[in-house]
Input
Amino acid sequence: MDNYEITVTAASGIEGVVKKELKSLGFADPKAFDGSITVRGSSVDVARLNMFLRCADRVYITIGKFNASSFDELFDGVSALPLADIFPFNARIVVNGKCRKSRLFAVSSCQSVIKKAILGVLQKKYKRKVFPENGEIYRVEFVISNDVASIYLNTSGDGLHKRGWRDLVGDAPIKETLACALLALSDFSPDRPFCDPFCGSGTIIIEAARIALGIAPGRDRSFDFSKWDFFDSSAYSLAFQEAKDNELPFRKLPFSGFDINPDALSLARRHAARAGVADSIDFRVRDVRSFSSSEKSGCIVTNPPYGERLLSPRDVASLYSDFGSVWKKLDNWSLFVISSFPSFEKYFGKKADKTRKLFNSGIECHLFSYFRKPTD
Ligand SMILES: C[S@@+](CC[C@H](N)C(=O)[O-])C[C@H]1O[C@@H](n2cnc3c(N)ncnc32)[C@H](O)[C@@H]1O
Output
């Protein structure tokens, strides 16, 4: 069987962005529902999605869906799934999940029932009672919603925001997937001047440079599916080769990353080197209050302090006000700011052309968008 229902998950507020990414990867009819998007495809499609999706959280294969309003129904439903060909006798099976609006609501009990049912299927297939569980990891995830159980296999492993380039954590970093969603929602373009004046450990500017240089987000990491025997063994290498073929030759980009904190900038430089884009970006220690540009037109996408994890509300109010004065002096620079600060627009001094609710590490935020037409 090499035709799967593939379920892609995305953070709240960016499902639409991921749907567009799926379309641009050649999936004509992605269906979005309840925080996830489904498409149909082969093992190679699963590999390509893991390799190329920039804004999605994880890629799953749907193993099955059935009604389950009791533990017996859950056990029987899992036992009836086509599991025997998936797991080798030494599979390390980890079950996790969630229950909502359902008679089954005790997550840990559901986990045990599902694991027991899977092992029951394997006992019949391998004719043994005990399994070493010392082989490759298989992460099974379930969602029981309105008494319907959906069982998935996580093909990604770690979340797709883990690109492989971040090895140290700075102050309040934004996830790579959210950074790419902000870029997708902005008017960022690889050949236009681009700046993150609060770049911290460099996430937004590094992801922007990797987009500009055609570097696949999954190029520098591994995925669980590539170690599975039942999966087409050429899937990963085909996707990796496609990633290599898509890479553009090195070029210096008109991109700058600034931050007032020299330690943050050292981290950004280190990460940019690990991400393969160090020589493409101009990094400088700079207070946003001294930001200016000789470029007539450009794009800023940024994640300043919110007055929650960094700086006090009073300090961010004054910082936003100064940032607003600086931005107004720029000619034709569009601006996209994510912040949870309730009165951002008031202190910044201008109402956004558009606002959109997003979540950054569980904090409710808004993306404030100020569009300017790019000039030649
Ligand atoms: C929320 S963090 C940015 C995190 C970044 N997006 C990342 O992924 O690592 C905000 C950054 O703004 C910087 N900052 C604070 N005040 C600043 C100022 N006046 N000018 C420039 N940067 C400033 C902080 O040093 C911090 O690195």
Remarks:
- Residues 170-174, 197-198, 200-201, 203-204, 259-261, 264, 287-288, 303-305, 310, 319 surround S-adenosylmethionine (CB under 6 Å).
- The chain is about 30% helix and 25% strand.
- The first helix runs from residue 15 to 24.
- The radius of gyration is 23 Å.
